[in-house]
Amino acid sequence: MHIGLIGLGKMGFNMRERLRKGGIEVTGFDRNPEVTDVATTDELIAALPAPRLIWVMVPSGEITDAVITELGAKLEPGDMVIDGGNSRFTEDQKHAAALAEKGIRFADCGVSGGVWGLQNGYGLMAGGDAEDIERALPVFDALRPEGDRADSFVHVGGVGAGHYAKMVHNGIEYGLMQAYAEGYELLAAKEIVTDLPGTFRAWQKGTVVRSWLLDLMVKALDEDPGLASIDDYVEDSGEGRWTVEEAIANAVPAPAITAALFARFASREDNSPAMKMVSALRHQFGGHATRPAK
User: Fold this and answer.
1) 69, 137, 223, 279: which has the highest count of C-beta atoms within 10 A?
2) 241 has a pLDDT exceeding 90
């Protein structure tokens, strides 16, 4: 199988490498000449056998809009586009409708795994018609971890469902990170606790709160025991806000996720050890930039 991949930032670059290791031939395009395989999208399209499959892995919003609009003008009926970025689910429905007018298929896929996906594989949440998802299964199988498909891949539903599931996933992530971070600050505030990193390390096996996030928390403390190099300013990339907006729209109480989002807003005003830990965790799992300590 031979596919195109547009967007070779850190995550897209790693996905290209994992796909190739999984036996998928990939031609990648990026504006960065140091990582791209071809110089233009026209060359990318020409390199792919018809009907083409192109995975788009660029920042959500205007950049995704521009890429999908360009592909809509250049691809042929029967070709297929997958948006693997973090687009809002309502954007998927708009993109699918625009491409359908030209006979071009569309699917969306929420992707979790961050900078560790190349090594560990990615959790995948796909939205679209069943025949389109079936067509792309070899790609999904190459990206996901080894083992049962159901443990790391799901066809959530129609167009937009994949990104909706990923949005909720990230909202849950907000709450989990905030809980760990608040526990960290409470332990750090008590003089009786003399081995803070060791406490979290002892939770890694056998406890009910063990998780990959906890493992990354221990790693962050190993690298910077007091988190002295990290500012407590924490960005929010959109999914948490969208999750809270959807909770309001559907009258679903989501106090933990909402509080975690508001804590990120508070981090931009106060000095907080807990928010230093949230910033450190975002860097550990997703490679998100941290701000240096003031």
Assistant:
1) 279
2) yes
Q: What is each CA distance from 160 to 46, 87, 94, 224, 235, in whole angstroms?
A: 29, 9, 10, 39, 25
Q: Considering the chain, what percentage of its residues have pLDDT values greater than 70? A: 97
pLDDT band at 231 (very low <50, low <70, confident <90, very high): confident
Tell me the residue length of the chain.
Answer: 294
Catalytic site positions:
166, 173
| Domains in the chain: boundaries | 2-158, 167-267
Q: What is the pLDDT of residue 175?
A: 95
Tell me yes or no: is domain 2-158 CATH 3.40.50.720.
yes
